[in-house]
Amino acid sequence: MKPIFTFSILLFIFIAITSCESQYNLSIIAPKKAVLNDKVEISLSEENNFPIEEVTFFVNGNEILSEKKSFILDTKEYGTGKLIISAMVAYGDQKSKRVNNSVEVFSNTPFISYGYKIINTYPHDGNAYTQGLEYHKGFLYETTGQNGQSSLRKVDLKTGKVLKKIELEKKYFGEGMTIVNNKIYFLTWKANKGFVYNLNTFELESEFSYNRSKEGWGLTHSETELIKSDGTSKIWFLDPSSQKEKRYIQAYTNKQSISQLNELEFIDGKIYANYWQKPLIAIINPNNGIVEGIANLSDLVKEIEKTQTLIKDNDVLNGIAYDKETNRLFVTGKNWQKLYEIELIKK
């Protein structure tokens, strides 16, 4: 009888331990929303007061140093956007479990609304499905999309004439571009690939892959980084030499996230971004993601419709270029027959 008795005790202990472990009810306590510069408490909760041996917190995958079951999240360090909060919890007999939550951080200031006035109008190739646009040393450089129609072009501003052009293979859907140190960086949409061309000869020099984002949309640059959109609210910052995505911001107003960001331009320290399929341009702080301004160009769409018929949701506003030397801002759209120099005006 002794072996049976011993076995019964062991079985009882095993069931008790297993039952105890199954009753661990772990969660992260955090506010759903916050405003930039808020400091909010993040804590771990165990509903049944079972013992916790160790807790390691993470924000967006980065470990947070804390010796307690809580820490203070300073939103100023992360900027706007959805922050993923995780905790790796160690408990009884070297067991561990990961729990997750999130905090959505909004801008702490309302955005400024802008209208515009037309300064000049120039001809534009109505067959150019504009994806990227940049002004460089007196000329426009443009990339176009659609499989079988994607191209890189050098364009005369005043006449709209295409001076130089190369086409991508039919399997690629061309997207945004930018020029840095006599090199043209040209994105593709879903192929997870970008190309680097010689500015003067348009010869292909190298290729690169997106290591963190899934798609390529718009592209511009600051003095130190390439800046890339991926069709979400995220804007990525890349090392120009390796083209590796290092970090990102998320574009937010004080009320909502701004997604489907497309063509980009970097102007006076701010990121200007087209909304896809909307006649709007967001002006974004690259340090924290705050949408500081929104320009409404809906009347410009009505202006182009006076001379051509636009295909809804296809021939949309897309393309921002800036002449830094003379402070000229140019915009156009996909398959638009005109390119406009405009001045933004605060409402």
Explain what this protein looks like in three dimensions.
This protein is mainly beta and 347 residues long. 34% of the residues are buried. It is built from 2 helices and 28 strands. The protein folds into 2 domains: 26-106, Sandwich (Immunoglobulin-like), CATH 2.60.40; 112-346, Neuraminidase (6 Propeller), CATH 2.120.10.30. The chain is elongated and about 75 Å long. The longest helix is centred in the N-terminal third of the chain and has 21 residues, at 2-22.
Q: How many helices in DSSP terms?
A: 2
> Structural class per helix/strand content?
mainly beta
* Form type: elongated
Give the rounded overall mean pLDDT: 91
> Portion of residues in helices?
under 10%
